Structure prediction request, 141 residues.
Amino acid sequence: MDPRGHWQKVYVTRKATEVSWYQASAALSLSLIRRVAPERSAAIIDVGGGASTLVDGLLADGYDRVNVLDVSGAALALASTRVGAAAARVTWLEANILETSLAAHAYDVWHDRAVFHFLTDVGDRRRYVLRAVPRGYPARL
Ligand SMILES: C[S@@+](CC[C@H](N)C(=O)[O-])C[C@H]1O[C@@H](n2cnc3c(N)ncnc32)[C@H](O)[C@@H]1O
Prediction:
């Protein structure tokens, strides 16, 4: 399956508020992030963030190193349009997490809501974990 084609179609044909995973506030994620990374200088990446409202909450909280990665540029456009001028404070990464190269040790918080669980192939899960876990750390799947 071509993940980009699939997800682009989802985001251009459905309103962000109509998808089953929509949440007006990413309250649980925000409270977990505040707990593990109280300093607002923490580098946070939302992998497969799509059009999630998590970025709105992080910006409102004062986090200033927010990254949103998604395979769908349409999803990122929805989120960046929604947050308005504050979009300039976010690094938007249009990429397939299974193929992109992210700098090791670049992020203090790796957030993923409803992306990893789509990976039904063990090879894909390994490729994902290799990107999430800094080199040198043991990672088993
Ligand atoms: C169920 S949605 C969840 C979106 C968001 N995390 C949320 O909580 O609203 C899954 C998201 O993962 C993205 N996605 C799926 N496979 C991906 C991949 N291989 N690389 C990057 N993003 C991916 C999709 O474009 C979609 O935005």
